[in-house]
Amino acid sequence: MSMFEVKNLSISFGGLRAVDSFDLTIEKNELYGLIGPNGAGKTTVFNLLTGVYKPGTGVITLDGKNITGKSTIDINKAGIARTFQNIRLFKDLTVKDNVKAGLYNQYKYSMATGMFRLPGYYKKEKAMNKKALELLKVFDLDSEAETIAANLPYGKQRKLEIARALATNPKLLLLDEPAAGMNPNETIELMDTIKTVRDEFDMTILLIEHDMKLVSGICEKLTVLNFGRVLAQGETAEVLKNPEVIKAYLGD
Predict the structure, then answer these.
(1) Closest CA to 9 of 205, 223, 240, 209
(2) CB pairs under 8 A, 24+ apart, for 25-29?
(3) 61 bridge partner residues
(4) Is the separation of the CB atoms in 169 and 111 below 8 Å?
(5) Closest Cα to residue 75, out of 54, 57, 95?
(6) What is the pLDDT of residue 15?
(7) For every residue of 131-157, which 3-state class applies, written as one string?
(8) pLDDT at residue 117, rounded to an integer
(9) Residue of 42, 51, 94, 86 whose CA lies nearest to 69
(10) Residue 102: which residues within 8 A CB-CB, separation 6 or more?
């Protein structure tokens, strides 16, 4: 069985079939791309995979476990984390505290321990600080651990959001347009970052992206959506040469 499988996933909003009979198979440690024209249904798929929307039909399986229709929290605990097209950081918190927020399900202490600052509190906080700094170092953000997140440049905010997602210890990382708003140099740096995350964390990654240079540079396989349906799937080079894919992006 593949690490992640989606079969016959569908959802309708009123009379609109936003996603129709969507199938996807991703192997462990794969770097997979989900692409398509604006309005094709890509982010809707991400929302279905992470419990934001409940599917009308279909089955979602992670490591053999059926997670269809689970809550966002339960899906995250099962091993799926995501970033968003529009950055969603705790902008008034420090860089380090943003990452520590992602560690909530790994380092726990009772309310009394926290309120009265019992020894267990300091032990857990020390462990969380250490883990947060280790994650930030991967993204070259450890020197800015005490910086308020809102004061980071845009590209570093993107990296911080990925670091926070990784703090939840996922099996599958979903990146929703990670290069949105980045200049070419930032995009190249992001490509290296994504490859590093895959290799250093033995991570499986599914990303939505419009930047075809990034897609062709890092994705091993692609699924193309158009009007909520799968238009093409397969090896990246072959999919990008598909006449129907070119037509969907460029028109007749």
Answers:
(1) 223
(2) 26/2, 26/172, 26/204, 26/206, 26/221, 27/2, 27/3, 27/204, 28/3, 28/204, 29/198, 29/202, 29/203, 29/204
(3) 5, 66
(4) no
(5) 54
(6) 86
(7) HHHHHHHHCCCHHHCCCEHHHCCHHHH
(8) 67
(9) 51
(10) 81, 163, 164, 165, 166, 167, 168
CA distance 95 to 173: 20
- Alpha helices by DSSP H, the chain: 42-49, 72-78, 95-101, 111-115, 119-138, 154-166, 184-200, 212-218, 236-240, 243-250
Amino acid 161 reads: E
Q: What is the CA radius of gyration of the chain?
A: 19
Tens-level pLDDT at each residue, the chain (252 residues): 799 999 999 999 988 999 999 999 999 999 999 999 999 999 999 999 999 999 999 999 999 999 999 999 999 999 999 999 889 999 999 999 999 999 877 766 666 565 656 666 668 888 889 999 999 999 999 999 999 999 999 999 999 999 999 999 999 999 999 998 889 999 999 999 999 999 999 999 999 999 999 999 999 999 999 999 999 999 999 999 999 999 988 676
d(CA 181, CA 179): 6
Q: Which two tokens stand for residue 123?
A: 């032990």
The pLDDT of residue 123: 80
d(CA 33, CA 234): 10
Cα(240)–Cα(252) distance, integer angstroms: 16
CA 7 to chain centre: 20
Annotate 115-131 with b (16+ C-beta within 10 A) or e (fewer): eeeeeebeebeeebbeb
